[in-house]
């Protein structure tokens, strides 16, 4: 019985033992390769592209958090503006997570940025075993070709777990050019006539500085009437209105992607009346608007919203001197409402 067992073991071991060693070796190589590739991947350009120009929150692999405005990035570094309008460069291998900073967040002070964050992140090397035998150390060399270069000191602390969430956002980017399209009209007039009681649309170009936006809007309207049965000749009339609108917008409150803001502006333009047969008449117009709005950012650069407020428009009519009539003014005050589409880049 013992002889049979020993013979069986001798036949199995020579073949199974190398197979087990090869499988173990391949699993070890695969594990090391996967962990190395995941570690070297860092943050991708796709993750960074949507946050450029906005206030972001970056989790570093030493468990610290940095907040600042993302200005630019390269294949190796990410450049941030931190408190005091100072800029720092973080090595992309240091970044463990990236997302939009919560509303009301402050930029991180320059002195709070971890030392070595601009260099390649290195895990702390295992401590060498102490041996009872003391060995003489060679004297330091002064030859620049053979002396080792400076190395970054390892940073204590375990890397932060979790990958960045692409496309995550907590509101609009803080700075950038603004384009806004507004469609709506006067819902009803508080006083005066109906010269501004039209459906209207306008657009605005401006620049956003954190909570304040400075812009110039433009509103245009056109209407015409045809009276073919008038004697002795048919009458064709049309009105064209152009209003320039210097506008200020200020964010009163912001929570995540939702923003409440105040909008105010002046209106300066003209109304051109055409009468055929007859002569064209152009009269100046003045006005203003003041309203409150709500805006939802479904992306750091794009938002939809609504706005409502008070609007006044006055037309200064200049009558012909030959008709012996005094100049007069026509005006109206209305409650307006609009739907808005905003883009920031």
What descriptive keywords fit this protein?
single chain, 345 residues, mainly beta, five-stranded antiparallel β-sheet, 2 helices, elongated, disordered N terminus
Q: Helix proportion of residues, in percent?
A: 10-25%
Q: pLDDT below 50 for ≥5 consecutive residues: which ranges?
A: 1-17, 30-41, 152-169
Q: How many individual β-strands?
A: 13
Order of helices and strands: HHEEEEEEEEEEEEE
Kindly provide the radius of gyration, computed on alpha-carbon positions and rounded to a whole number of angstroms: 36 Å
Principal-axes shape call: elongated
Gist of the model:
Helix content is 13%, strand content 49%. It has two helices and 13 strands. It has 345 residues and is mainly beta.
What would you say this structure looks like, in words?
Strand 11 and strand 12 (302-317) form a beta hairpin. This protein has two helices and 13 strands, in the order ααβββββββββββββ. The longest helix has 40 residues, at 2-41. The chain is mainly beta and 345 residues long.
Topology:
Layout: H1 2-41, H2 45-49, E1 55-60, E2 65-73, E3 77-82, E4 86-91, E5 95-100, E6 175-192, E7 199-209, E8 212-227, E9 235-255, E10 258-276, E11 281-299, E12 302-317, E13 328-344
Antiparallel strand pairs: 1-2, 1-5, 2-3, 3-4, 6-7, 6-13, 7-8, 8-9, 9-10, 10-11, 11-12, 12-13
